[in-house]
Amino acid sequence: MTETSPGAHPRHELDEVIHAPVRFSIVATLAAADKAEFAFVRDTVEVSDSVLSRQVATLEKAGYVAVTKGYVGKRPRTWLALTPSGRTAFAAHCQALRAIAGDGAGGG
């Protein structure tokens, strides 16, 4: 084992889709629930509708977020939920962040 092994640093385990700050915040918010209304996520993450829509589209394309549309009474609603693969990817991403934070203090 050498310290210069390619791919040995935990940063290689970061998920590029989740890593963007807004997407990370969205996924973290959704990880705490089975599903959440679009407006709740928007307000929690503090972004506009259009920003949230674009970021959710990226997460949905990656298979990490499921979008469900429906009605509450006569009002249209959109719900967001992490898929099983989204939960797995988020857990792995967080583990890589913890490894970097814990192991990255020395050297350089």
Automatic annotation (TrEMBL):
<protein>
    <submittedName>
        <fullName>Transcriptional regulator</fullName>
    </submittedName>
</protein>
<dbReference type="InterPro" id="IPR036390">
    <property type="entry name" value="WH_DNA-bd_sf"/>
</dbReference>
<dbReference type="InterPro" id="IPR036388">
    <property type="entry name" value="WH-like_DNA-bd_sf"/>
</dbReference>
<dbReference type="InterPro" id="IPR027395">
    <property type="entry name" value="WH_DNA-bd_dom"/>
</dbReference>
<dbReference type="Pfam" id="PF13601">
    <property type="entry name" value="HTH_34"/>
</dbReference>
<feature type="domain" description="Winged helix DNA-binding">
    <location>
        <begin position="22"/>
        <end position="100"/>
    </location>
</feature>
